[in-house]
Amino acid sequence: MAQRSRERTAAVADVGEIPAVVNPARRAACLDNLELFLATYFPDSTGLKPFSDDHRRVIARMQHCLMHGGRQLNVVYRGFAKTSISERAAIWAALNGYRHYILIFAASKENATDIIESIQSELEENDLLYEDFPEVCHPIRALDGKVQRCKSQTHHGERTRIAWKADRIVMPVIRWPTTHHWIDQETATCPSCEGPLLVPNDGSDAWLCPQCQKDEVAAQVKWKTAPSSRVIIRAKGITGASRGAKYLKRRPDMIILDDPQDDKSAISPLQVSKLLSLLRKSITKLVSHGSTLACIVNATMIAKYDAIDQLLADSSWQPERIPFVQQWPAAHDTLWLGEYASIRKTYDPSDPTARERAERAATAFYVEHRAEMDDGAVVSWEHCYNDTEVSAIQHAYNALIDDGEEAFDSEFQQNPQAEAKSLGALTAEMVQAKACGRPWRTVSRLSKWVTAHIDVHDDLLLYVVGESAADFTGSVVEVGAWPPQSRAYYAQRDAKPTLREWLKQTTSTAVTAATSKQAVILAGIVALARELHGREYQRDDGTVCSIDSCLIDIGYVEDTVIQAIQTAGLGSWLKPARGVGIKSGDKPIMEWKVPNRDKGDNWIWTVEDGRRYRIIKFDSNKWKSRVRDGIRLAIGDAGSITIPGKPEECRLLAEHCSAEYPVETEGRGRKVEEWKAYPGRENHHLDNMVGWLVAASVLGAVLPGTGASRPRQQGPRLSLAEMKARARKH
């Protein structure tokens, strides 16, 4: 009884005989022709419309890379069908056995899952693939959507070892005669019609001609494993690149990166750097040393200087950038951006049908003047337009008119505009250009004060130390973090070690997960403040100096910062400060009612309501403009800011200083630059640069021509011992 049950189970698990190939000639024609494969077997996607010359060139490049190895970069516009082409190219390489482990990376794990689901859908439901590649598709359909059948599935009593998971596919192991499905005419041809002969699955000597329906006796048949057997297709999010790439004792020999960056990561210099580092140090090194890697990146450039933009300049890649509009028509400024745009955009927004009527009217205008409006236009793909449009050039202009030049340059032309959103913004290149080569942590003999500012966060404290002359001419002295980071380029959110880790390693007090973040931050501030207070810097005249004054931001955890200042015993040296973004409609900070002795150039000493301590409040918009102006000024001009070291050494500072841009607003009869942050950027050292300059202004630095007066002179700085003695006496 048990024996019969096992036999029935085994019979159910076996996929049975593999059907013969329906169209051997069609399969053979696509063996070494990826373009034909895409057009033939996927009539509802890559075969729906004829390919453009740009498509054919990209597909030919991909085919060469897949068959022979290399690194290809294809930068193409939205709507190019790059994801569909990538997925189906992976299927082609797997079915024909050109590659044995295909790894596809997407921008996120969710996108990777979508890619695998799309490939699985084609292998399971595409009837054309089933007809001509039954050795793969028949065992897949035999699963009937039940993945638990994978472990027990057999063919002729041998396990197929198929895998069908959310993130991977392993093609079934199928053994068949060498001439079973499709054969070279030079190997065996029908004596009647000279067509290819087929052999039944049982391996008999009766060769069948599918055209003449005649049996011919053949020589002895040899069995072999199908070329697709055990081929792996996996998809992962780009962040999982270096984890778990090895599978079934194999390493990838084909890698496809499909749009590996998203809108947020493309504008983050840190994320761009991480992606490039991951690509160069990890992804391209996943292949075993004995294999030739085929690596293809298909992507759309999102922002200037994003990862794709930088790869275009990398000589280790073979790049191609394809804009949608390759030549604008002669009527670009007149008919298209004049009359056509006016018709399309003129409608009553309160009427829900008005926009549709305006679009139809614009299309009618285009049809009437099409010959003149198309004259001189050249587009990449003439079939790229939707049902409401007449041509690809109209599709391009609709996108340009509706979404604006900035979006069009990025999405369609692969030439995004520079990241600076106004003429008043800094770029990282501007900041790096002020690197003067002087050693870090040294001070000029011409400087009068050395000041600092600390920015407070949960995991890291960041600071800038700078020097200033009486006319605000100055230089950065040091850019740092607490606890000190082992890397020159890092982010606050991925600090190693963090404040908590540092405290756990350096204190005898038990530090656990239950230890409050306030306690951790307080300990970090006290340690950093005492470290900076005692730090000495070498002047270029041979003398030694120290930091005269330090501001610390209290905008995040005010009570903790005040407690840390008191704990450190540095009350007259370490001053609490808060930036206030004064807008055009607000009262200028210089008009706030405080004694003149307690105010300076867009800053005041004040006691906030309910507080017993004074803080320095300053106009952050004004002072960010001051930082921008100082970096833009030529070295030697009053107020100019320079940076030590080489340009590559100040990369972190440069990216923080260029993380915001000004927008000019007007109100109450005055114009003000209001600074806005680029999404996803870190700007902490920009805040520190502001704080360093404000601290110098409090001590007496004045920029000529600003009309600001010198503030009251501060008393001499007390030593730590003197401060403690005063505290005990009090």
Summed up:
The protein has 730 residues and is an alpha/beta fold. The chain contains 24 helices and 30 strands.
Describe the protein.
This protein is an alpha/beta fold and 730 residues long. It folds into 4 domains: 269 residues, 3-Layer(aba) Sandwich (Rossmann fold); 44 residues, no CATH class; 85 residues, no CATH class; 302 residues. Helix content is 35%, strand content 19%. The chain has 24 helices and 30 strands. A hairpin with a 5-residue loop joins strand 19 and strand 20. Helix 12 crosses helix 15 and helix 15 crosses helix 16. The longest helix has 18 residues. The radius of gyration is 34 Å and the shape is globular.
Name its key features.
alpha/beta, Rossmann fold, 730 residues, disordered N terminus, 24 helices, globular, 4 domains, 9-stranded mixed beta sheet, 19% strand
Could you report the average pLDDT, rounded to the nearest whole number? 85
Structural class: alpha/beta
Q: Please give the radius of gyration in angstroms.
A: 34 Å
Note the overall shape. globular
Proportion in β-strands: 15-25%
Give the domain tally.
Answer: 4
Helix content: 25-40%
Report the strand count. Answer: 30
Give the helix tally.
Answer: 24
Spans where pLDDT lies below 50 across 5 or more residues: 1-6, 178-187, 201-205, 215-222, 713-719
**How is the biggest beta sheet arranged?**
9 strands, mixed
The side-by-side strand order for the widest beta sheet comes to 25-26-27-24-23-18-19-20-28
Topology:
Blueprint: H1 2-13, H2 24-29, H3 34-41, H4 53-68, E1 70-75, H5 82-95, E2 101-106, H6 109-125, H7 127-132, H8 134-142, E3 154-155, E4 158-159, E5 163-164, E6 168-170, E7 175-177, E8 206-209, E9 214-217, E10 223-225, E11 232-237, E12 254-258, H9 263-266, H10 269-281, E13 294-299, H11 307-312, E14 318-321, E15 325-327, H12 332-345, H13 354-368, H14 370-374, E16 378-379, H15 392-403, H16 405-411, H17 428-432, E17 442-443, E18 449-456, E19 461-468, E20 474-482, H18 499-506, H19 517-534, E21 536-539, E22 544-546, E23 549-553, H20 558-568, E24 574-580, E25 599-600, E26 603-607, E27 614-619, H21 620-632, E28 641-642, H22 651-657, E29 660-667, E30 670-677, H23 684-699, H24 720-729
Parallel strand pairs: 1-13, 1-14, 2-11, 2-12, 12-13, 17-21, 18-23, 20-28, 23-24, 24-27
Antiparallel strand pairs: 3-4, 5-6, 6-11, 7-10, 8-9, 15-16, 18-19, 19-20, 21-22, 25-26, 26-27, 29-30
Helix pairs in contact: 5-6, 12-13, 12-15, 15-16, 19-20, 21-23
